[in-house]
Structures are given as C-alpha cells and as structure tokens.
Write a structure and sequence with these properties.
By secondary structure, this protein is mainly alpha-helical. The chain has a domain at 7-90. The chain has helices spanning 7-34, 37-45, 50-86, 101-106, 114-124.
Length: 132
C-alpha cells in the first residue's frame, strides 16, 4: 500500500505541473501560429489534383491533432493542480487509496492507482479491435 504524499512532495508536484502547464501553453501558441489559415491556403493553392489536395488536408489535420493532444494534456494538468488545491492529489479516484509515488513520478496527472488503472483499461479499452 502506498503512503500518502508529504507536503514537500506536494510542493514539488505543484511546481512540476505548473511548469508543464506553461510549456504546453507555449506549444499550443506556437502550433496555432504555425497552422493559421494562410498555411493551409498555401498548401491547397499549390495542389493540382485531388490526391495533392488530400495531402494538404492531411497536413492541416495533423497540426490540429497535435493542438488537440496539447489541450487534452493541459486539462489533465489543470485537474491535477485542482486536486492538489483541494487535498485530493495522489488519491485514487476509484478505490480511495494513495497512488504510489513511482506512478506519480512517471505520470503526475494520474487519477488512479496502478491496479485500478489496469482494471479501467481492461474494462474500457477502445482499441477498435474486432467485434466478431
């Protein structure tokens, strides 16, 4: 069973999460500046057939997917900071036990202990496997 986090550990996690939050915001800003509509217009204007147009669409979509991943991580970081603020950080959302420090070191936005996360992934796996 994992031990609850000390105040010093919480301070360190808060610092790490805030730093990551700032990094992610910077990444989103850069991606948005790079993916403005002029970039897509340049790509689309340079194409001459539907195959080339599909490539231009794909490049624009890849940029949007990257931004979406950053935004999702920003939300997880903000939620972790909120859990720190209310005293719920490091506590498994499913079983209420402390999340191991080793897990939080690797994944500081974790909401579940390893055991509960494994059960969750087995129950809600969305890999799109065959239904036959």
């Amino acid at each position: 069973m994992a031990e609850p986090l000390s105040n010093e550990q919480l301070v360190q996690y808060r610092k790490r999460l805030r730093a990551r939050h700032g990094e992610l915001l910077g990444e989103v800003r850069r991606e948005l500046l790079q993916s403005d509509s002029e970039r897509y217009i340049q790509l689309a204007g340079a194409v001459h057939d539907t195959g080339d147009e599909s490539v231009a669409d794909l490049l624009a979509d890849l940029s949007n997917d990257e931004i979406d991943r950053h935004v999702q991580e920003i939300r997880r970081v903000e939620a972790a900071l909120q859990r720190i603020a209310v005293g719920a950080y490091g506590v498994c959302a499913d079983c209420g036990q402390a999340i191991a420090g080793e897990r939080l070191e690797v994944y500081p936005t974790a909401t579940r202990c390893y055991t509960c996360q494994t059960k969750y992934e087995q129950t809600y796996d969305q890999t799109g496997g065959s239904t036959l």
